[in-house]
Amino acid sequence: MTRFALALVPILMYHEVQDPARPNPSAPPSWTVDIDSFRQQMERLRSAGYTGMSVSRWLAERPIQRCRPVVLTFDDGLRGNIDHALPVLLEMGWTATFFITTAMIGNEGYGAPDEWRDASDKGMDIASHGVTHTPLGALDSESALGELMHSRNVLETAVGIPVVGWSWPHGDIPPDGIAMLQTSGYQWAATSREALARDGEAPFS
Fold first, then answer.
1. How far apart are CA 80 and CA 196, in angstroms?
2. pLDDT means over runs of 10, the chain (205 residues)
3. Which segments of the chain are extended strands (E)?
4. With 170 labelled, which of 73, 119, 134, 138 sits at a CA distance of 20 to 30 A?
5. Secondary structure of 19-58 in the HEC alphabet?
């Protein structure tokens, strides 16, 4: 599933949303958007008739007739996702998908387990971005399966519900990647390829 779906659906990818007065040292500047810009982007989407939603909601409800969907995703599990992006999404009544790199959970600049559970309880999608953010194509099959299965287990323990979504670290999809996802219990995946997703598109494409 590409990020940006008959109906074409944009799937937007964010990393960090931060307060410029208190930048997150764990987030490179090229991965960040400031709070005010993020809010303006969400308001412009709403003014253009879009409704922000998680990957899971879009997949469950497509084709969506009653609104114009835009799927919102956040990679890595950075601190500002909790502190700054989540309040804006809740204020607008929107949902989003947060792809978490599990080795970073609770580290400086990243969200903690109870915060991801709270986000899940508020309707947000919690999905995996691997244990170490290593491209699976750089690993042998055993290690790649370990990234898929261990990260899923950690997140399910943290949020208390099944975790079925995956985002490919660095957008890298190895030749046997989809088969490994299915073996590991995932139901859909996202990558960073610049394209448009389609309502009829397979969830692993």
1. 27
2. 57 95 94 97 97 94 82 97 98 98 97 97 97 95 95 96 95 91 94 62 58
3. 8-9, 11-14, 16-18, 32-34, 50-53, 68-76, 97-100, 125-128, 165-167, 188-190, 197-198
4. 119
5. CCCCCCCCCCHHHEEEHHHHHHHHHHHHHCCEEEECHHHH
